[in-house]
Amino acid sequence: xxxxxxxxxxxxxxxxxxxxxxxxxxxxxxxxxxxxxxxxxxxxxxxxxxxxxxxxxxxxxxxxxxxxxxxxxxxxxxxxxxxxxxxxxxxxxxxxxxxxxxxxxxxxxxxxxxxxxxxxxxxxxxxxxxxxxxxxxxxxxxxxxxxx
Length: 148
Description:
Blueprint: E1 3-5, H1 6-12, E2 24-29, E3 33-40, H2 59-77, H3 80-83, E4 86-98, E5 106-118, E6 121-130, E7 133-146
Antiparallel strand pairs: 1-2, 2-3, 3-5, 4-7, 5-6, 6-7
């Protein structure tokens, strides 16, 4: 499947509103790379309290968006029995750079790539863009664990 909508992403991830940040996943290369869309709206939950006079998307939520996109890419590429009753937890962020503020109303485009996997541990890198301008980039790792 080359494209996932929000409902299909919801089927893969345990996240729910308001924390499900990814609206679409496309250009999917199985277990390797994908592009995600995050619609950053003026009524997004974080805008109300994160500098209401000059709202920006918090950097930690950009990193969370990277993580959700990577989890959806991975879950979409694995056999359902492999990720069923599992969760993907962020293990570490090696590098995260925030180059420009992400201002609502915009579409944040995340280009992510799985750069290594070993057993249940995966390493990813990603770049975030608005109108082809790089907003952030990161390298992070995550693990797949059993639900308790």
